[in-house]
Amino acid sequence: MIRLKTLGLAALLAAATALPAAAQHEHETKTPVRQSWSFAGPFGTFDRGELQRGFHVFREVCSNCHSAKALAFRNLAQPGGPEFSEAQVRALAAEYKVQDGPGDDGKMFERPARPADHFPSNYPNPEAAKAVLGAAPPDMSVLAKARSYSRGFPLFLVDPFIQYQEHGVDYIYSLIALGYTDDKDPNANQYFPGGHIAMAKPLSDGQVEYTDGSPETVEQYTHDVAAYLMWMAEPKLEERKKTGFKVMAFLILFAGLLFFAKKRVWAKAHGQDHA
Ligand code: HEC
After folding, report:
1. Same structural domain for residues 210 and 251?
2. Nearest residue CA, atom 41 of ligand 1?
């Protein structure tokens, strides 16, 4: 019986250690490099300035190709996000045109966007984007949460305890800021599965103007836009982390109370026995 158990355990361990090696062999995609994020960990919060800059990069650069269908302009003023003012959001929305209608003449018409409207896509559908760009750029609404990867044994056992939830943003950062290293092939990328991506490096130093004095570098742009994409994918992240902490604090307090209640109840029972 004991021998069977140890045999089973040995087989399991062998399988677990063999797995990552096999996975790495299949495609030579690099594992994203961990970055530091203000929203990581149980007390994490977004950096408002970073989210505002990230939106700026998204709007100036990424949204030329990628859509973000779940984003309404008014979300940009809501608590827990970039928190632009209502007036800023109204002015921003008015710069875009959206289709509305049909009007009295039975035809659709265009009008300036309002805060309740969703962020318009540059391409009417993914097929149209693919025809121009060679591949369909994925919608960015939940991209930062949709991209994950295996960190392999033994890290995947550790991740739940260190609350590592930044796989998506680490991937986006690595892909854009670190992945384009081949001078001859603009579509080679070390972090994209398969090593070849239809999107050439979308950012270069000085491309987007920052008004708050932050460095206008690829690294800064990418970090900011990745943080912004994280907020889009999980607009209630700050709320979730606050609630999580309250629940933990309550559970610890409650466990303490139960412990002392138990001690008192049993102390009394003993007392009666002796009387
Ligand atoms: C010129 C058009 C264009 C621009 C601008 C652009 N992208 Fe892309 N992007 C694409 C296309 C096309 C793909 C799909 C690539 C593929 O499937 O090979 C893509 C893919 C991606 C992916 C990979 C998603 C995956 O499937 O894993 C990420 C991440 C990404 N883009 C982020 C960005 C960010 C951030 C910006 C802005 C800084 C940006 N892109 C700007 C066209 C663009």
Report:
1. no
2. 62
